Automatic annotation (TrEMBL), chains A, B:
GO terms for molecular function: tartrate dehydrogenase activity. The keyword Membrane does not apply. Belongs to the isocitrate and isopropylmalate dehydrogenases family. It comes from the Bacteria. It catalyses: (R)-malate + NAD(+) = pyruvate + CO2 + NADH. This is D-malate dehydrogenase (decarboxylating). Keywords: Manganese, Metal-binding, NAD, Oxidoreductase.
């Protein structure tokens, strides 16, 4: 069975880490006899925008819909195209049109990586953030009134649907069932955001009834961010709305010292549309073009993609290869952001060899 | 000149730390010859709600409006009254009706307090979070449709006005001018929240033109929370919307290890209405009634109140007294949350004596 993968490198360091992501994927494919067919697309980048006046061609949906997965680098280059145009014109389109309603991000303290939190060791921090990925605070409903005057008012609607909330909760509860601690934490703000967030809480309480084996707690987002720093060991599966999930899935990796290497999956669990796999980091214009970006986020995202396609062992092997190379701590291999003197290529090659 | 202070202890540990807040205030008043007249109110607590069916009497506004300041403990007790009712019925009313459009919170690593961040010492972290405190994501506009059915949809409107945004920015820029580093960081999310947040950015850029002496930068809220953990030394004055400010002003104190002792001010800068001073911590039902709550947040809030009333030296003396008692590190005096064996009273008394 051939798995067709659409490759979109995007902008900045996206184009530099992607070759290493592919190298690792191909190594895993070879070792585990997985048949991958990669097709590269130029669209979904700011350079494409500058040439065509849009981030994606009109028929992008038809071009991509029959792929088994999308492997994405990073998008955005504010000096070329404002972020809200480049992002809404590409990544956020994929998430919505392909109904990738789950954004899944592991937060795991890896060997050889120093956590910014005092006294935390590998094993201490190991949880998932499950983020609603299509609705909520990221809405396109709203507008401006009294434009350009003193009385100017700007409105934006947060939209939560029962369908949208329930399906992400269900995914998160199911994930919690596969974990040893069987614990789910809900991110809320029902004490301040008085309509949507009490609704979120209601749905969590309702869903919890169907999962008596899962220990459920909830925190308001303000104190929850504090607890990520103070008690990262409390968490197992954390579920949040689009915005809260976005925040927690940057903060979580930051607490594990892995903001530059964390992976993410944008999943359509039913498989009706392709899912998308991308590193958490952005396009990093400041270091782009130097060949020094850390490719681990891209490689780890590739592992999540193989897992999604059903190749658990291959995925585990890729993650293990990352851990081994990190544990080894060879200065000539590691990139600068994690204390080495190597570059994108040296680290990518070392991991691919290990696989 | 007599300064009339309305005292509302609220719920849980609010009622325990308030006497220590008052003790310290009275010590400072005595030493610096400040004429304070305190009046205690029972309303604004969940017990009041249980008796009266509302958090505040109908004429609360008239009862309180001519005070020079409100000194608040903590409100909320979810087992008695749901948070969105107790909070919207009290604290959030004060903030709105008294147009306390600034929420100001210092994030300062204090001597003797261990930061959860590795290798950070007092002096390394010292910034302010300035939060818009009346509009934005905390709106009461919205509702539910198709209630109780599969198609259920819940809407809540974020509302930003030019008046609302500009005045908080102005306050933050002015504050930055008083600081040695003259730096302002704006919290945004204009890459994802595509209407209100680009507007926020626009207003920041506009306001910045009037403050050429201030170095301005901005981060999306997701990476900003990460940077609080990774680079807390980058920040001087951080300004955010109601929700973003709320998150950052819990996360900031968490990074300084002071979530239980941080103060906050809800300010109406024009002095048209009384401002309100309260600790960042909540009513903490879990430890209420034991006399072990840390009173520093309440005392430090009292210092912010004196500063607001024009007594800078008295305020500085109160903060210095807190720092001295913390530096001294007497186990018999400090509360358990900061590693001692003392209680609310011992710590409160020690600080008052020092003042
Ligand atoms: C209790 C809650 C409504 C409140 C808020 O979100 O404003 C609190 O978190 C705060 O920061 O003062
Ligand atoms: C780039 C931005 C729109 C995006 C988001 O907020 O979803 C990013 O932060 C992410 O988490 O993938």
């Amino acid at each position: 069975m051939v798995h067709r993968i659409a490759v979109i490198a995007g902008d900045g360091i996206g184009t530099e880490v992607m070759p290493e992501g592919i190298r690792a994927l191909e190594a895993a494919a070879k070792r585990f006899n997985i048949d991958l067919a990669l097709t590269t697309f130029e669209f979904g980048s700011c350079d494409y925008y500058l040439e065509h006046g849009k981030m994606l061609p009109d028929d992008w949906f038809d071009q991509l819909k029959s792929f088994d997965a999308l492997f994405y680098g990073a998008v955005g280059w504010p000096d070329k195209v404002p972020d809200h145009i480049s992002l809404w014109g590409s990544l956020l389109q994929f998430r919505r049109q392909f109904d990738q309603y789950i954004n899944l991000r592991p937060c795991k303290l890896m060997p050889g990586i120093k956590s910014p939190l005092a006294g935390r060791e590998p094993g201490d921090i190991d949880f998932y953030v499950v983020r609603e990925n299509t609705e909520g605070e990221y809405s396109s409903v709203g507008g401006k009134m009294f434009e350009g005057t003193e009385r100017e008012v700007v409105l934006q609607e947060t939209v939560m649907s029962r369908i949208g909330v329930d399906r992400v909760l269900k995914y998160a509860f199911n994930l919690a069932q596969t974990r040893p601690r069987k614990k789910l934490t809900s991110a809320t703000k029902s004490n301040g955001i008085s309509i949507t967030m009490p609704y979120w809480d209601e749905r969590v309480a309702e869903m919890a009834k169907q999962y008596p084996d899962i220990a459920v707690d909830k925190f308001h987002i303000d104190i929850l961010t504090a607890n990520f720093v103070l008690h990262p060991d409390w968490f197992d599966v954390v579920v949040g709305s689009n915005l809260f999930g976005d925040i927690l899935s940057d903060l979580g990796p930051a607490c594990t010292g892995t903001i530059g290497i964390a992976p993410s999956a944008n999943i359509n669990p039913e498989g009706k549309f392709p899912s998308l796999f991308e590193p958490v980091h952005g396009s990093a214009p400041d270091i782009a073009g130097k060949g020094i970006a850390n490719p681990i986020g891209q490689i780890w995202s590739g592992a999540m993609m193989l897992e999604h396609l059903g190749y658990q062992e291959a995925a585990d092997t890729m993650v293990k290869a990352i851990e081994d190379v990190l544990s080894e701590g060879n200065n000539q291999v590691l990139t600068r952001d994690i204390g080495g003197q190597g570059n994108t290529l040296s680290l990518g090659q070392a991991i691919a060899e290990r696989i």
